[in-house]
Amino acid sequence: MQSIDFPLAQDIVQRTMHIIPFSVNVIDARGVILASGDPQRVGDLHPGAQLALARRASVEIGTADMARLPGTRAGINLPLAVRGEICGVLGLTGEPDDVRQFGELVRAMAEMMLEQARLVSELQHEKRYREEFVFQLVYRTGISDASMQAWAARLALDLRVPRAMFVLEIPDAGEGPGERLDQVLTQLQQVQSDLSARWPALLTAVVSPGELVLLDAFPASGPQQARAAQARQRLLELHQVAQQALTPPATLSMGVALPGLDGATASYESAKQTARVGRARDGAQATFSYLELSLPVLLSGLQAGWQAEQLRQTLARLQAHDRKSGTLMRTLAAWFRHHSHPMATARALHIHRNTLDYRLQKIAELTGLDLDDTDDRLLLYVALQLN
């Protein structure tokens, strides 16, 4: 049943008394006056309203009726209904013949305000329901898969469709005075509102201070280059909307697109790792895509352990020799970036082809690897990704 709270009752009284010259009372479903043009009546029981609630019909009380209904005043009492359910009473104080002409007008206005309040409440409940679902995908606090699947069905979410997590992060949001954190949270909520207004199907949730997560459908198959281009475009669209509401700089990363509940959780983890790898490579960049950083993101799990140590040893002598200038490391990175094409690499580095050949020979000597051998070349590339 729709309930009437004090602020809403007060708003109804103030608005209706602007258009009629009589005192107005708003009474709840128990017959208690919530708001009134006569403030001294707030909190009192209203016998006329209780009678209207019992009869589920309008009740008029004239001066002659007041003697047999102690505590009443002359006026009319009109039941308030929202979607067929009576939730209270609207009372107009005055002789029935004088106030009757205003009754239906003010009741229609009051019921419209009640309906609007109910719609807002339902929208807020739906927003919280959607947001909590995304939160559970990120943290998986123990809710069973069956319950999560039922939750997804309630949201009309087809779990067979691949989806990608996007993570909007504001660095160091929790540091500094509390006012800054409040400001960040307010701005993230505005970003949520703006994104939902533009893309209603987008699921979003603020999952930690300074972190907003978005869940969006995205293809998991097809040509890699086409999907990478689509990811760049989607990141740009989302980031442009977010930046309009944000004061501090923020980064937006996209994870791998996967179906299912576990797929969404994995996508979040991959988006976070994509952001870490992307920021380490280019701190000035604002958007990062797993599709463009998939190999270094996948290899980032090798940052510790004996395997990582062995891979780092591959470049140890090269880095020691190259410590001051960094020329050979930059040359190696450019060579891989240009798919081992000598002319393209030389042009990018603004050097002669012979100079490039000399540097590559020096790299081979220092690493002890044959750059023409596929396995050696792959080993060197992986070691460079972990550098």
UniProtKB/TrEMBL annotation:
It holds the Pfam family GGDEF_2. InterPro entries: CdaR-like_regulators, CdaR_GGDEF, Diacid_rec, PucR_C-HTH_dom, PucR_C-HTH_sf. Residues 142-277 form the CdaR GGDEF-like domain. Transmembrane segments: none annotated. Residues 328-385 form the PucR C-terminal helix-turn-helix domain. Residues 7-137 form the Putative sugar diacid recognition domain. Belongs to the CdaR family. This is Transcriptional regulator. It comes from Janthinobacterium violaceinigrum. The lineage of its organism: Bacteria, Pseudomonadati, Pseudomonadota, Betaproteobacteria, Burkholderiales.
